[in-house]
Amino acid sequence: MVPTLGNGKICYLELPTRDVRESAAFYHNVFGWEMRTRGDGAIAFDDAVGEVSGAFTTRRKAVQEVGLLVYVMVFDMEATLRLVIENGGEIVQPVGADLPEITARIKDKTGNILGLYQEPVAKQPKEE
């Protein structure tokens, strides 16, 4: 799948981590992100829809205060929050704080804070 190209599109993320493999497993298990090894040997990722890619970096500290906040779209908030906990993350803002929006905030295993967002009537696309 070729990502959508467009001026101003967010296309790449660098996620701070203390342990690249640990973070790769967390994001794969929780969000279904695909991991790959780049030519330089770094572990990179592609989001679940192939629109955003990125890599993990051990050169920066985790984003532990809310400033710029990245939200990950999910189809089932409750199931995703269970996966966060099962994979060593934590919930730092439960569902309900941003009503009527369906949002939550989590910390990954390194301590990065991310937002989760669910469309009110989001349904998974039918598999063909």
Your description of this structure?
The protein has 128 residues and is an alpha/beta fold. The chain has one domain: 2,3-Dihydroxybiphenyl 1,2-Dioxygenase, domain 1, CATH 3.10.180.10. The chain is built from 2 helices and 8 strands, in the order E-H-E-E-E-E-H-E-E-E. It has a 4-stranded mixed β-sheet, covered by helices on one side. A hairpin with an 8-residue loop joins strand 6 (90-93) and strand 7 (102-107). The longest helix is centred in the first third of the chain and has 12 residues, at 20-31. The protein starts with 11 loop residues before the first strand and ends in a 10-residue tail after the last strand. The mean pLDDT is 90.
Label this structure with key terms:
8 strands, single chain, 2,3-Dihydroxybiphenyl 1,2-Dioxygenase, domain 1, 2 helices
In short:
Pfam families: Glyoxalase. The chain has 128 residues and is an alpha/beta fold.
